[in-house]
Amino acid sequence: MTTLLWGVLPYVTFALLVAGLVWRHRYDRFGWTTRSSQVYESRLLNIASPAFHYGILFVLVGHLVGLFVPASWTDSLGVSEHTYHLFSLYGGTAAGALTVAGIVLLIYRRRTNAPVFRATTANDKLMYVVLLGAIVLGMVAKLTHVSGDGYDYRQSIAPWARSLFTLQPDLERMAGVPVLYQIHAVVGMALIALVPYTRLVHMFSAPVQYLFRPYLVYRSRDPEQLGPRPERRGWEKAGS
Fold first, then answer.
1. Helix (H) or strand (E) holding 20
2. Which residue range or ranges hold the NarG-like domain (predicted)?
């Protein structure tokens, strides 16, 4: 089971992610959208959507730093393990709470607004369940191990995650990981595998090209030139 969960499942997840992105890009480009329902209701959406997006952005950054920035790097910057733990605990909990609040409001909006509910697909429902489960499990795992410096996942889960890129997964690192962290990791991989097949695919559509496109030049018109254009030489008007 250890080999299946930590040696095989991550690569299956990656394969499903890449295959799904390629398939959507080739055969479902018009479906590569958020399928926004703002036209049906915007008051709650204007609150829930920013809360969710800002929260999930901080959650994502926190996971990237925690998993792929070695502890030796933060130590060299003068950040002690206790300081990192406190920042991870309070910052991560705040980001998770903001994300959960956004998701709950989005679900409430979909359930109580008839047109929005009719536009909700089975994929949407599955996405909300897995996404909410991943966030809540991560918060519970973190808050369950708060004594002292908490559980130091940077000495177990993080090295295992980095070892995946070498195609030689360090399975022994996951042997003593608390069960809640293991469940959180499995649900997280399920969420990653689902991304291309849900509206979450739009996260890969960041408009990076806008950073490099030329400026659009707008010129104001001379007020004295407003009105009908003067006639130009050419065909005569009909009836003249």
1. helix 9-27
2. 3-221
Cα angle: 160, vertex 165, 168; to 5 degrees: 65
Q: Which two tokens stand for residue 157?
A: 């889960």
To the question of pTM greater than 0.85 for the whole model, the response is: no
Question: What length does the chain have?
Answer: 240
Q: Output the tens digit of pLDDT for each of the chain's 240 residues.
A: 889 999 999 999 999 999 999 998 888 878 777 777 888 888 899 999 999 999 999 999 999 999 999 888 988 888 888 888 888 889 999 999 999 999 999 999 999 999 889 888 898 899 999 999 999 999 999 999 877 667 889 889 999 999 999 999 999 999 889 999 999 999 999 999 999 999 888 888 866 666 676 766 666 666 666 666 666 665 556 655
State the maximum Cα–Cα separation within the chain, in Å, rounded to a whole number. Answer: 94
